Amino acid sequence: MNDIVTSLIYLFVSCIVLIIAKGVYVRLLKYDMYKEIRLENYTAVVPYCGFLLGNAAILAGAFIGPDSQGTFLKELVYYLLYAVLGIGLTLFSGFVAEKLILHKFNNTDEIVRDRNLGTAAVYFGIYLASGLIISACVTGETLAGQPKWYGLVSTLVYYALGMIFLILFSKLHDKLTPYSLLGEIEEDNAAVGISFAGNIIAIGLILMRATVGDLADWQTGLISYFIDITAIILLLPAVRILLDRILVKGVNIAQEVKNNNVAAGLGEAFVIVAFAIMIFFMVDFTGMV
Fold first, then answer.
1. CB 142 within 8 A of CB 212
2. Per-residue pLDDT, 28
3. Where are the domains of the chain?
4. Three-state SS at 215
5. Whose CA is closest to 79, among 173, 151, 170?
6. Separation in Å, CA 111 to CA 93, 154, 188, 206
7. pLDDT at 191 over 90
8. pLDDT at position 78
């Protein structure tokens, strides 16, 4: 089949998948997103934006993934399987955000009643980060030479590892900041939520970098994964130095974020994401394995 025709078919199918994903997402929400949009509550749509981008990343990863030299129909079926799995895991990420990360307050009340942008931003970050992680899982043939279903298994394994790491990172981030992360977010501190969301997305990019690629076996893959994570995380303190002493010299970013300075929150978020993007393309510790 002509490559252009094939691409158009995949694009059409992907649009249908995203429409279905939106329907499932809206049905599972604890509030009426459409009603909140009519009420101009922009915080209600922010988490959905992260969900949409996360799933778009998954679909892109599945599309550019390995060609098993099978028939077009067979490849399309595998693509849809990865899409459904990815959507399900991304939806589960919302549960992780509510129960294990933002667990000290009612997330729905914060988004709907208080229009808490900080809470909405964290959901945006979690959905996008999980989509990036899953995208990496389905982009390469995780276990080269193994049956196709190994890719599904590896997706679940690396997704679980990624979520565990994100949860642990949220605890560590709370300890390292001079303020209570959840306390500030509950108090409608948008800057803290935006800053934290940027950190989550950056970690998602790093986990994506550690996950992506063709691996020969589970042992090599997991060793490479943890070497990548450990080495890269050790580089993250450099971001704080860069932010505080070079980009915004003379300004205590952490204090400004605590004071709900949204400009400071955005600055920290985008610097950490930019740093993670550079790591993604420039740093490779797999040669150590």
1. no
2. 95
3. 3-288
4. strand
5. 151
6. 17, 34, 10, 28
7. yes
8. 82
